[in-house]
Amino acid sequence: MTTRWTYAFVDRPVPRFAQACEFWTGATGTRLSDSRGERREFVTLVPPGGADACVKVQAVASGPGGAHLDFCVDDVRKFAKGAQALGAHVVADQGTLVVLRSPAGQLFCADPWRGQSTRPPVVRGTRLDQVCLDIPPSLYDAEVAFWAALLPDWESLSGSLPEFHVLKPPAGLPVRILLQRLDEERPVSAHLDLACADIAETRAEHERLGAEFVAEGSRWTVMRDPAGGTYCLTGRDPETGGVPSGS
What we know:
Layout: E1 3-13, H1 17-28, E2 31-32, E3 42-46, E4 55-60, E5 66-73, H2 76-85, E6 89-93, E7 98-101, E8 107-112, E9 126-135, H3 137-150, E10 155-158, E11 164-168, E12 176-181, E13 189-196, H4 199-208, E14 212-216, E15 220-224, E16 230-234
Parallel strand pairs: 1-4, 5-8, 9-12, 13-16
Antiparallel strand pairs: 1-5, 2-3, 3-4, 6-7, 7-8, 9-13, 10-11, 11-12, 14-15, 15-16
């Protein structure tokens, strides 16, 4: 089940979709594609210089939104069947695209690979390169095992802190996965992480674009975008995605 490309989705409520699009194009140095979908609910953030996009925005009809991943593969049916064998459930089969839910409840999609290969560049010292799955303690170990088995060509690594586990994709793929064990029992969710050469500088830039500061951790800053979604600025190398040695 080789993954050819990955997309991080910014999922935001319909009433705040336009705000999300405006903010995230500014934060990632991209432009909007034409909208598509039955309700015009999807848009792609198109990077400069002919690179392939790896971030999309989706307007969700219910709930606060969050984030999810799309995996572009050669054989969508094979990937979906493999996921089901590991405990995932099919939510919707749209022919060329299959929407699934992980054992803990996180949505993700299998989509055909269309030749994407060129990763977008670092923009102003930062790169949106990670989807973090926030998992309750009772489901954490099983969820880590699921994702590691689903993506056997990805490197499964212990995180920088005991509550983190990293799935590092093969070279060239643009989006990593961080699995985070929460301190409380609540439904699984997901948020976006940006790798930042300078967190304070990126925070100031995002505040100029309309984001708000939420909280500060030892190696990350939690922010809220103008559409109400939380995300993190993390002290990682924007080129490699890794935590600098000695941090």
